[in-house]
Task: inverse folding
């Protein structure tokens, strides 16, 4: 849906003489869900006309209204007229002849923090136990138990998982897959270490679920006292479609993506005097370096494979020095413990940001161990080195730049998803050890890897319901995470639940069942209109 706005003036306002009191918007519908009173896209576009009433105000979010009237059901509005009072606004959606289709009265807005709607978390919800028990059929149900120890086991585990998937796809009819881990996914009340190595299989497994639903892969994480065979005998009888599960002391839990936080804009923080950034010469690393200097950092270490030979590196150094900081550029791999140890000894950073990473996209049937390792090494190998070097430096905060792919899977990015799921688990594990660590599972930035996508690829992302994060938005979420001071993993992404729901299969995959609500046809038994 498109919207164009014209503003008119009528009298003065507190915003000053000439501030607009009325706005008229032209709505151009591109289609919408069948059987709903007003297409969500049309209503959303109509609300955007409020920006025409206060063009210089900070972004706002509608949060309350006095009345909504549907006066012409089934008529597609063509215009929206808005008028602003002292405390509230009124909207009228009109047809081509100017007759009112929808009337919204007393609409009130509140200022929008820059992180509103972007912060999410994976949370467990209690589930009913399956109705009975049955034996596993080894010919049709392939069960694998993954148990690693540290993050260094994630690469071998990912190779093993890829081999299993490729073998299953070559089998006719394809088997049903069950992947079991123990303590790889954090559950409230858990104690002890997180199995960071096995956590990679959750990122890979989520991608398998997207690329090959015919394998019906179910991921199950067990507690220390849960018997794998007993759990499987129960799960094989389940009919609720849950495919990401935790069992703890005989209780069953399902994983859900949920919004978190109020999104309030944090007070600007002052960062440590010294900061080390791995991948510091990439697009994201450069943006973070500038942000750190703006927040008080005066010594910045930038690690990149090509060092000063990286395009734009010399210009970045000059820019940071012009801003009053000293920039040290080092050529090297983040997996090299000697390089990392020397850098940290020389710089003594109070904050380390691990932003190194590469992608080598390809569907699971095209993946090889070599291709997977190329993606896994900078993320997982680098994080393992940083974990070891910083183990005796509890005063240093480690921030891991993870990805939405690890939390939700991503078709064509199996190894990348595996690597990022391990980073999220490492943040939880280090937090349990009293080491300040934050993992941010970012959706695509407008800069960085996503910024290199063509227009068609970016449009495909939008249709799938995943929008890009502006640089300022992503950095605001980083700032909020540091200000909160709580270790663990966060999901930071611009997600459109309506668009996502339109793409998902029916029934909605279990992880989306909190966030995605499909509209019900009008007139159905459960419709509010009836």
Result:
């Amino acid at each position: 849906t498109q919207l164009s706005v014209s503003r008119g003036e009528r009298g003065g306002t507190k915003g000053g003489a000439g501030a607009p009191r009325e706005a008229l918007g032209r709505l151009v519908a591109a289609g919408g869900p069948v059987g709903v009173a007003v297409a969500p896209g049309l209503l959303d576009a109509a609300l955007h006309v409020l920006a025409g009433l206060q063009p210089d105000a900070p972004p706002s979010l509608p949060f309350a209204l006095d009345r909504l009237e549907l006066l012409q059901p089934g008529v597609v509005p063509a215009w929206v007229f808005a008028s602003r009072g002292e405390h509230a606004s009124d909207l009228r959606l009109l047809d081509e002849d100017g007759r009112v289709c929808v009337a919204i009265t007393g609409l009130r807005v509140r200022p929008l923090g820059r992180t509103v709607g972007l912060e999410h978390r994976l949370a467990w919800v209690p589930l009913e136990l399956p109705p009975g028990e049955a034996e596993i059929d080894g010919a049709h149900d392939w069960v694998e138990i993954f148990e690693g120890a540290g993050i260094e086991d994630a690469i071998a585990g990912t190779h093993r998982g890829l081999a299993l998937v490729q073998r299953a796809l070559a089998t006719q009819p394809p088997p049903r897959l069950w992947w079991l881990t123990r303590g790889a996914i954090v559950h409230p009340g858990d104690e002890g270490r997180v199995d960071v190595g096995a956590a990679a299989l959750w990122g890979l497994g989520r991608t398998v679920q997207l690329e090959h639903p015919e394998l019906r892969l179910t991921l199950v994480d067990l507690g220390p006292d849960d018997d794998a065979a007993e759990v499987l005998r129960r799960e094989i009888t389940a009919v609720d479609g849950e495919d990401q599960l935790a069992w703890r002391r005989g209780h069953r839990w399902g994983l859900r993506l949920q919004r978190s936080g109020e999104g309030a804009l944090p007070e600007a923080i002052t960062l440590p005097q010294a900061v080390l950034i791995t991948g510091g010469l990439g697009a994201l690393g450069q943006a973070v370096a500038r942000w750190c200097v703006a927040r008080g950092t005066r010594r910045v270490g930038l690690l990149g494979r090509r060092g000063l030979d990286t395009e734009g590196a010399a210009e970045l150094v000059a820019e940071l020095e012009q801003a009053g900081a000293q920039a040290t550029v080092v050529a090297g791999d983040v997996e090299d413990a000697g390089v990392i140890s020397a850098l940290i000894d020389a710089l003594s950073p109070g904050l380390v940001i691990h932003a190194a990473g590469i992608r080598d996209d390809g569907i699971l049937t095209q993946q090889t161990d070599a291709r997977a390792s190329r993606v896994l090494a900078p993320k997982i190998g680098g994080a393992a080195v940083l974990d070891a070097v910083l183990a005796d430096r509890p005063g240093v905060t480690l921030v891991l730049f993870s990805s939405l792919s690890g939390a939700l899977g991503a078709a064509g990015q199996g190894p990348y998803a595996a690597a990022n799921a391990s980073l999220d688990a490492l943040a939880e594990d280090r937090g349990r050890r009293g080491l300040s660590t934050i993992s941010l599972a970012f959706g695509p930035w407008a800069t960085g890897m996503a910024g290199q996508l063509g227009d068609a690829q970016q449009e495909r992302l939008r249709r799938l319901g995943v929008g890009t994060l502006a640089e300022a938005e992503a950095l605001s979420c980083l700032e909020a995470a540091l200000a909160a001071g709580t270790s663990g993993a966060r999901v930071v992404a611009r997600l459109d639940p309506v668009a996502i729901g339109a793409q998902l299969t029916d029934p909605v995959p279990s992880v989306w069942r909190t966030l995605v609500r499909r509209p019900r046809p009008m007139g159905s038994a459960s419709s509010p209109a009836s």
Remarks:
- The chain has a mean pLDDT of 86.
- The longest helix spans residues 369-389.
- The CA atoms of residues 13 and 19 lie 6 Å apart.
